[in-house]
Write a structure and sequence with these properties.
By secondary structure, the chain is mainly alpha-helical. The protein has one domain. It is 70% helix and 0% strand. It has helices at residues 8-17, 22-45, 49-70, 80-96. The longest helix is centred in the first third of the chain and has 24 residues, at 22-45.
């Protein structure tokens, strides 16, 4: 039986353990960067279609990382809110240098 997570604080170490491969982290980072780019573009041009581009590019690249590089199932399916929060947290940790693309545990 899989462990159930009730708080983000207990979920986040699990999230990071599912993102150990450099390629997975890079695919997430690129996808999240595209998400923010499309989101800003949609706001600037007031075109809601860009929100669809944002979501598709973010999840598409993240899932490629999971299925083909990490070879695991994205935690989005079981913990959608925690997973989204984890993605943003890891993204900003990489930007600020608190985390690296090549995870070492």
């Amino acid at each position: 039986m899989e462990k159930q997570y009730h708080t983000f604080e207990e979920f986040y170490p699990y999230y990071k353990s599912e993102h150990r491969q450099t390629g997975t982290r890079i695919s997430h980072f690129i996808g999240t960067s595209l998400f923010f780019g499309w989101l800003i573009t949609g706001i600037v041009y007031r075109e809601p279609i860009y929100l669809i581009y944002a979501v598709v590019s973010a999840y598409g690249l993240a899932w490629v990382g999971h299925f083909f590089i990490e070879k695991n199932k994205p935690s989005t399916f079981q913990y959608p809110e925690f997973s989204l929060r984890g993605d943003f947290k890891l993204y900003f940790e990489i930007w600020t240098g608190r985390e690296k693309f090549n995870a070492r545990y």
